[in-house]
Amino acid sequence: MPDTTSAADTQPTTPFMLDAAAIRAHFPSLAQEQDGRPVVYFDNPGGTQVTRGCIDAITDYLTRSNANTGGAFLTSRRSDAMLDDAHAAMADMLNAADPREIVFGANMTTLTFAISRALGRTLAPGDEIVVTALDHDANVAPWQALAEERGAVVRMADVDLATCTLDMDDLKSKITDRTKIVAAGYAANAVGTINDVATIVRWAREAGALSFIDAVQYAPHGPIDVQALGCDFLVCSSYKFFGPHLGILYGRLPLLENLRAYKVRPATDEPPGKWETGTQNHECLAGLLGTLGYLAGLGRAHVAEYGHLFSGMSGRRLELHVAFAALQAHERDLTRRLLAGLRALPSIHIHGLTSDVDLPRRVPTVAVTIDGHTPRELAESLGERGIFTWDGNYYALNLMEQLGLEERGGALRIGLAHYNTGDEVDRLIAALHELVR
User: Fold this and answer.
1) Which pLDDT band holds residue 17 (cuts at 50, 70, 90)?
2) Which of 56, 142, 230, 365 could serve as 415's disulfide partner, Cβ 3.0–4.6 Å?
3) Domain-ending residue, one of 292, 312, 345
4) Radius of gyration of the chain from its Cα atoms, rounded to whole angstroms
5) 203 and 177 in contact (C-beta within 8 Å)?
6) Is the full-model pTM beyond 0.85?
7) For residue 190, is it within any domain?
């Protein structure tokens, strides 16, 4: 099976679009209106809308199964079974070898801090951690805090500001025999760049370092195969891929077994429980299962087109990977339409990759600035028209500072998801033309 940075390139080159009406019927919030018109959700990089399956599963859990775990009674046994299925389902989505490699937590940032502190026990003064200037601060600040605490050194890889892509030569030069951890993003949350994570992981492994991949921004937009990547850790957030507010960590089982976790004394010493402190958010984990059920159903409808990309997979695992391959192709066509419309606007600056040939190197997250308008003014004016976008730095602080945008209010971020439509893209472009006229 090809790695996830290149699998998309083997997809059909002819336009592929999902059945928009069928997709949107699964998302109740898409029916919301403002001033008599449907609202448009282009705020997806900050959090997507959730499926009806997610909502129904949360309600069902709280109605029929609400209990703590390990009890000798019906609702507790139902909770135990649901938690087991949630670990197995996420292992399927990420192609993890074992459900014990899946750890749930409050959010990606909390899980990153937890793992970074555990890894800190293995560091000595002078050891090095490599991060990148393209990343969300949640994959930078925890490592900086750890380095300060342990006397380690953080080295930051540079960005090509013309394309908002990682300077891979600079990144490689910063990985040395002193490097112990390489932390990088799968896709940039501010500008959408997809990084060559397979190469980054290989460089880390060749140097004897561990790799930690932030896949929060990539997970809604393409299939992830942790075994093909060979990464040591990978994190994502289900509220970014149509589910509830949860963080998810994948870790290679030997590492989760052998690292020393911060936990209370009676807790198990076996993963994933040794890493899941306190009672988990059971109702949201049930909701996650509802979302993954929706995605598996989407995948079943498109196995004929994309099943060949995932040889060796079957059942729910195959269906989930096919679903993300299908929505990736759909989103690519929407992104092409968005970028073409944006390029036609006067006085606009698109920060990042903009050409059609670069579509496989980006997710449908686009950051722009327009001369004479602050990002906040643009977001407010679009919001008044029922079009939801983000403005600011989105915690990609290092990138915004290097682009010279931080002191100017950051950028306007437009993020598509597979439930968006071409008509919504055209509505956005028309609104921006009105605003800059």
Assistant:
1) confident
2) 365
3) 292
4) 21
5) no
6) yes
7) yes
61 and 207 within one domain = yes
166 within a domain of the structure (yes/no): yes
Q: Are strands 165-166 and 179-185 parallel, antiparallel or unpaired?
A: unpaired
The whole-angstrom distance between residue 415's C-alpha and the CA centroid of its chain comes to 12
Query: Does the CA dihedral 192-198-201-203 come out positive or negative?
Result: negative
Q: Are 320 and 307 in contact (CB under 8 A)?
A: no
In total, how many domains does the chain have?
2
pLDDT at 264 over 90: no
State how far the Cα of 358 lies from the Cα of 353, in Å rounded to an integer.
6
Domain range for 27 is 7-49+322-436
Q: How far apart are CA 133 and CA 326, in angstroms?
A: 31
CB 370 within 8 A of CB 379: no
- Answer yes or no: do 234 and 114 share one domain: yes
Q: Specify whether 102 is located in the same domain as 11.
A: no
| Domain termination residue (choose one: 250, 276, 292) | 292
Do 39 and 98 fall within a single domain? no
Q: Look up the CATH number of the domain holding residue 179.
A: 3.40.640.10
Closest C-alpha to 328, from 347, 348, 309: 309
CATH code where residue 374 lies: 3.90.1150.10
Q: Which class for 281: exposed (0-12), middle (13-18), buried (19 or more C-beta within 10 A)?
A: middle
Name the one residue in this structure whose structure tokens are 């370092």.
209
Cis preceding linkage at 364, omega within 30: no
